[in-house]
Amino acid sequence: MRQEAVSLLRCPICRGAFSLQGSSLVCGGRHCYDVARQGDVNLVPGRRETFYTKELFVSRAAAFEAGVYAPVVEAIGEAVRRYAPGDAPVMADAGCGEGYYTRSVCAGEPFVRIGFDLCKDAVRLAAKSDKGSTYFVGDLANIPLADHSVDVLLDVFTPANYAEFARVLRPGGVLVKLSPREGYLRQLREAAKDHLRHAQYEGGRVEEYARQRMTVLEERAISYTLPVGQELVRHLARMTPMLAGVPVEALDLSGVTEITIDETMVVGRFE
Ligand SMILES: C[S@@+](CC[C@H](N)C(=O)[O-])C[C@H]1O[C@@H](n2cnc3c(N)ncnc32)[C@H](O)[C@@H]1O
Ligand SMILES: [Zn+2]
């Protein structure tokens, strides 16, 4: 748990500020949360199951490690540099999963990095592999961060809560939201089409919703197709919620030799 992040965190129950006492975060209302040996902390009292499993995040990590999403990181980084003001801006990654974007966007540059997700396993994976950021289990619907504490908020393929995003962003702060377009992983959807109700993916709705809720500063498509080997194809099939419900291990993916990444990035501000 990094000290500079402790002052930004707020108790999800009473919204009180925290102090770090031994290995616990304790708020003014005496709510107490243990910081794990790995450095992460669970700020969602009670147990919440999500559709996302540890295996899915291990496969996401493998696909990220292979560089499939490196151009996306580059595009996000360019936008972040354009809009993040001042020294050591605070970058928070909402629904960070195993932390790829938290640790990779503008890597090596002086940001205060925070990642949170509802999935405990994902947060633990993130905390284990990245000591440069602060990770916690947190809910988008009740983000345990102080009002106006964040300069750049990332939301990559994750549900949005615009009221909470507007609350935690500083005046002038930006939301960078990524969502899939029609071509995203189309080769996998094609290979699984007998198991899918809608093999065609219709993008556009997420962006439309975003445009209605914030002032859009820029919007761009990030699209490319890469050659991929069989092992990587398997990881991509396991990592994507687009194949939810599909018996992925039984799929014949031998014909999939390339993969299309097709995303929209919207950067916006709440006035
Ligand atoms: C498709 S994954 C994307 C994860 C990560 N941004 C990435 O690109 O690898 C969506 C993530 O949203 C998280 N999520 C879903 N609902 C959430 C909520 N209410 N609060 C926080 N995270 C949530 C899930 O646990 C999951 O990690
Ligand atoms: Zn409290």
Descriptive report:
The chain has 271 residues and is an alpha/beta fold. The chain has a single domain (3-269), classed as 3-Layer(aba) Sandwich (Rossmann fold), CATH 3.40.50.150. The chain has helices at 3-6, 54-65, 70-83, 100-104, 120-129, 162-168, 186-191, 205-213, 230-239; strands at residues 18-21, 24-27, 32-34, 41-42, 90-94, 112-117, 134-137, 150-156, 169-180, 215-227, 258-269. Helix 6 links the parallel strand 8 and strand 9 (169-180). Helix 2 crosses helix 9 (230-239). The mean pLDDT is 94. Residues 50, 52, 60, 95-97, 100-101, 117-119, 122, 139-141, 156-159, 241 line the site of S-adenosylmethionine.
Percentage of residues in strands? 25-35%
Instruction: Classify the secondary structure makeup into a structural class.
Output: alpha/beta
What is the CA-based Rg, rounded?
19 Å
The residue fraction in helices comes out at 25-40%
What is the CATH superfamily label?
A: Vaccinia Virus protein VP39
User: What's the main sheet like?
Assistant: 8 strands, mixed
> What is the fold named in CATH at topology level?
Rossmann fold
Query: Mean pLDDT, as a whole number?
Result: 94
N→C terminal distance: 32 Å
Report the top-level CATH class. Alpha Beta
User: Using DSSP, what is the number of strands?
Assistant: 11
Work out the count of structural domains. 1
Poorly predicted runs: none
CATH architecture: 3-Layer(aba) Sandwich
The strands making up the biggest β-sheet line up spatially as 4-7-6-5-8-9-11-10
What ligand molecules are bound, each kind once? Answer: S-adenosylmethionine, zinc ion
Say what oligomer this is.
single chain
